[in-house]
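Many introductory courses stop at the sequence. We go one step further.
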Amino acid sequence: MPSDTKARIQAVARELFVEQGVQNTSLRQISERLGITKPALYYHFSSRDDLVRSIVAPLVEEMERFVGGPRPADDPRRLLDDYFELIWRHREVIVMMVRELSTLSHLNLGTRMFAWRRELIAMLLGDDLPQEQHIRATVALGGMSDCAVEFAHLPMEEVKPTAVEAAAIVLGL
């Protein structure tokens, strides 16, 4: 269980990373906003990279469980629904990563994200797909992710039904 201070550091860092980017946010800015010293911040995180990893880790862990876990048989709409909720929960982290693509390469997330998408497509439609259907699935899943980022300021209830329905239509479900 993370300490309260550690959780506060992560929350403030995530907010600043989303606002101004990872590379433009210093540990000094984070510590000043929190009203703590830099050594107190270093007690919890050895570097900015360590802090970024700790913020991204919950998304990575949940996504790994999601694509590796059991799925209800023959229920692709439920899978789309669950996937949208997962990306919505982590939309700030996704915004942070998209805003600063170097975060993806630095943490090797780009490769993982493409692997997750391929696994999700296989879960939705099977392994042996014609190229056209694979392209449709890529558009459907990518579009849902884009909606979570683009409309992050809206309530999920306003975004999810349309995003999931559009993905289902693209997939022919």
